[in-house]
Amino acid sequence: xxxxxxxxxxxxxxxxxxxxxxxxxxxxxxxxxxxxxxxxxxxxxxxxxxxxxxxxxxxxxxxxxxxxxxxxxxxxxxxxxxxxxxxxxxxxxxxxxxxxxxxxxxxxxxxxxxxxxxxxxxxxxxxxxxxxxxxxxxxxxxxxxxxxxxxxxxxxxxxxxxxxxxxxxxxxxxxxxxxxxxxxxxxxxxxxxxxxxxxxxxxxxxxxxxxxxxxxxxxxxxxxxxxxxxxxxxxxxxxxxxxxxxxxxxxxxxxxxxxxxxxxxxxxxxxxxxxxxxxxxxxxxxxxxxxxxxxxxxxxxxxxxxxxxxxxxxxxxxxxxxxxxxxxxxxxxxxxxxxxxxxxxxxxxxxxxxxxxxxxxxxxxxxxxxxxxx
Length: 374
Hints:
Blueprint: H1 3-13, H2 20-47, H3 49-59, E1 66-68, H4 76-93, E2 103-107, H5 113-118, E3 122-125, E4 137-140, E5 146-149, E6 159-164, H6 166-180, H7 195-200, E7 203-213, E8 227-234, E9 241-248, E10 257-258, E11 262-266, E12 274-281, H8 288-301, H9 309-312, H10 316-326, E13 339-347, E14 352-356, E15 362-371
Parallel strand pairs: 3-6
Antiparallel strand pairs: 1-2, 2-6, 3-4, 4-5, 7-10, 7-11, 7-15, 8-9, 8-12, 12-13, 14-15
């Protein structure tokens, strides 16, 4: 999906409660702010590399190229500075205070591990904004000198990248979303071993058997993807939308096929046995409080505009999903940001084999699964 399609959605849906221009500016400012915080950490780590080197080398291997900043041998002054940086980043991303570190170092490529033992590395970070507009990757050496590295060619010299721990950020962000959207999420199921549940009600689900994201040849400075889904539909018991957040922690890289065997839809949560799936990616400029607020606006307004949902039936669901999409800023639909793909009108009991999303970024195989009560 691109800005033109996004603009058409906004015009067609006429969303009075969405101010995407202000949100766009905030998103861009947030991207710059977080890049500046990473830059400050990169300079600090570079200038103190002689002291940090033992802890960096001890924490990296071909199995794990990342080093949590909390594992570094930092002086007390540096620890306090790191805490201040992480507090600013958490505030920019709408995440609560948490003692867990949200920043990390990453060896740019496993081929650099041997040279890292004998050569001093450069310290880099991903710039702000759309990666298509990046002219170079800025980096520091251990004397604080600045280097401009090519965007799409892996450097020969070892590079340590200062970045967000996207897995940690997404985990905390999903908690923020689920808490905010609790009134519009599906009711928790009764325990499977309860008498009333176990005697009469098999559970109808759809299982994600495989998923493949299109390889978009991201720059070497970009880290793993951290993807989640928003399953949208209408409650079977009341005229309200249902927005369920589903984590997909295994989905690390584009261009790779994953076979998670993950239950992604519980069908008794949705009216008309139909639902949509909107796939999103955690990104530096994602603010989860802001996203939750936008989703709440959508959930509150959507069915108010439809006097009799039963007349339109499951045709309402794509309208709900499109309003979720239209409530997001344009920058989230560029290749460097949050939007991944959307699947409209999936039905209970159907098998979808190598099924492409509306934007052809994702390809999934989805199969029905009935869970029999014990």
